[in-house]
Design goal:
Rossmann fold, 3-stranded parallel beta sheet, two-stranded parallel sheet, 5 strands, globular
Amino acid sequence: MKVVIDTNVIVSGLLNADSPPGEIVRMIASGLLRLCYDARIIMEYRRVLEYGKFPFTQEEIDILIGKIEHDGFPGCAVLLHKDLPDKNDNKFMEVALGCKAEFLVTGNNRHFPAHPGINILTPRDFLHEMKKRA
C-alpha cells in the first residue's frame, strides 16, 4: 500500500503519542507503514521538525527521516494543473499522484479536494480503514 502523509500528521504524532497521528508515527517507525515521498516532502518534514518551538532533538529527527527514506517509496511528482487551496500542499498531492498512492493522510483534508483513486483521510479515518483491512 502506498501512502502520503502530510507534515501536520507527523508533527502531531510526535507531540502526542496517544493520538491517531501518534499511532501512525509508530507504524512508520516500526516499518509497518511505508511512505511515498520526494525531496520536497523530506525537506518540509525536516524544516518543520527543526523549528525551535518543538522539543525534538536532531538525532530523533534524523532517525525518523532516515527511516522514511530507507523504507519508503521515493516518487516522481505529477504536476497539478491547478494549485490546491494552500499551494504549499501541492507537493503532497503531486507525489500521491506520481506514486499512485492509495491514501493521502492529513489533518487538513479541507485543503485537499477529492481526486479519483486517492483516498484523502484524516488520521483517525485512515486507522479505521487499516483496521477494516486487517
